[in-house]
């Protein structure tokens, strides 16, 4: 299997720069895995498209305002992207520029509202099997409220850190969403719309973009039609949207992402399937979580931890009966996951249909439902 088997041409003008308003007005390409036809609808039409007894699985991760700008002690400008939470105040982060950074060095970020203390490079002290050399700019650090954070004496800094990040950090928008360097003229819009309405657990550095289409009203209408909801948590990391850079798909290594499926939600999912309903993953991140937890009979078991699961054609997805997803990057692991569910040729044919019909692509783009 070659990464070039999942390539397609996309004019940059088709990459959505702003979301549809309202959220559920986005276009929706509806197709079955078997067959050659597709129909065109809107996300708001889902209550009429789905059936009573179906169950949607939502990813309730919340995007951290994880991009921080600041200064080194030497006076040089620096940017920090908090890529993975390792503890209440410890993170794995990508730091730019990375040259001459040293363990123990402190960075002043966002006008002194945060202080980052560099700890070590991932891979330098890891004993875990498979540990590799650190990537350029990859550091472990401790992030603390700084002198300009305005905390009261005796305040718990770990407790207030997420609140401070929400207030003073910057959203880590994907690079294909073009915003003016040094400022974001749509900052208010992005802060609202680059989060799902059901975002609950802070930890992601990218949104589970299929979920961006749902409104509170749409969720209520779905439930009124007898369509159930369950939730998983998968904290989307920087590797999720990264294209496969070698043509040999098997040589690609996935980044680890933290997930959780609670016993309550596992019971909802298994119960829906036992009653004859379809389990529909809202987004590739929900599908990855369910496939991480899948059992031999197709049911799911509760669990939490780290997953590096790479879903691609050759092994069927056993935990889901439908996939609601955005249109993804060429050669990406997300496109390969969709192809694992629907087949490569069928998936690329649906992408060609979307291109002919003027659908918008990527995070703020339109959606596809495959049943």
Q: How many structural domains are formed by the residues?
A: 2
How far is the first residue's CA from the last residue's CA?
25 Å
At the first level of CATH, what is the class of the largest domain?
A: Alpha Beta
What's the CATH architecture of the largest domain?
Answer: 3-Layer(aba) Sandwich
Helical run tally: 8
Structural class, from helix and strand content? alpha/beta
Q: Any idea what the CATH superfamily of the largest domain is called?
A: QueA-like
**Rg, Cα atoms, Å:** 21 Å
The neighbouring-strand order within the major sheet is 2-1-17-16-14-3-12-13-15
Could you say which overall geometry the principal axes of the C-alpha atoms support? globular
Unreliably modeled segments: 125-134
Write down the CATH topology of the largest domain: QueA-like
Bin the helical content. Answer: 10-25%
Q: What would your notes on this structure say?
A:
- The protein has 2 domains: 3-63 and 191-370, QueA-like (3-Layer(aba) Sandwich); 67-170, Thrombin, subunit H (Beta Barrel), CATH 2.40.10.240.
- The chain is globular and about 60 Å long.
- The protein has 8 helices and 17 strands.
- With 371 residues, the chain is α/β, with parallel strands linked by helices.
- Mean pLDDT is 91; it is low at 125-134.
In short, what is this structure?
The chain is of the alpha/beta class. The protein has 2 domains: 3-63 and 191-370, QueA-like (3-Layer(aba) Sandwich); 67-170, Thrombin, subunit H (Beta Barrel), CATH 2.40.10.240.
SSE layout and pairings?
Layout: E1 27-31, E2 38-42, H1 46-49, E3 55-59, E4 61-63, E5 67-72, E6 77-85, E7 90-96, E8 106-109, E9 114-120, E10 138-145, H2 157-168, H3 187-193, E11 201-204, H4 216-224, E12 228-234, E13 257-261, H5 263-274, E14 279-282, H6 284-292, E15 303-307, E16 322-326, H7 333-342, H8 344-356, E17 367-370
